[in-house]
Amino acid sequence: AIGQTLAFDKRLFTIVGRFEAPSTVMDAEVWVPLTDLQIAAKRDNLSCVVLTLDSAEFDDVDAFAKTRLDLELVAMTESDYYSKLSAFFQPIQAMVWITAILIATGGLFGGLNTMYAAFASRIREMGSLEAIGFPRYAIVLSLMQESILATAAGALLAAAIGIFVLDGITVRFSMGMFGLAIDSAVLLAGLGAGLLLGIIGALPPAWRCLRLPVTDALKAF
Q: Is pTM beyond 0.85 here?
């Protein structure tokens, strides 16, 4: 809002105006006086100059950039610029996805192992329930409900931690920065993964425990 301040490298800038440019890249930009920004960034060089040109004028600028090699200039359209920028970020995006998948896989197997150990230690309890007349499907259903409640509680706790600790954090690198946003899609994916873990984690150990004859289950420790 107008009158509030933004911090760039511990330097405060007051918001004096607001503009709208819907459906354009400028809609996400912050315009700052060049001199003030150079002082805040401790840089005196320019990496990009944006011009509004028609196709004929662009050809002239492109020809000038190609003839003045000493200036090390490259002229390109906005679409080409963002296409190359997107190609630059693709390996980073792939690395993030691979890391996330590895972490999720490790967490999944860790959760499955925990659920398996928890249910395997209750073989005698399941045998007792079966001995007093509970059908096996009812026992499996109760175990799944218990597992889903436990994993749902863990997923909600993880979502709360993510919102209060990670949401809004910015990560900087040489080419710019990106922010971590915990939105509704991320929350739904996390909660869905937790519920899926509860279902998958309960079925194998419950099936293994209930395969035993009642007499063997009652003797288990």
A: no
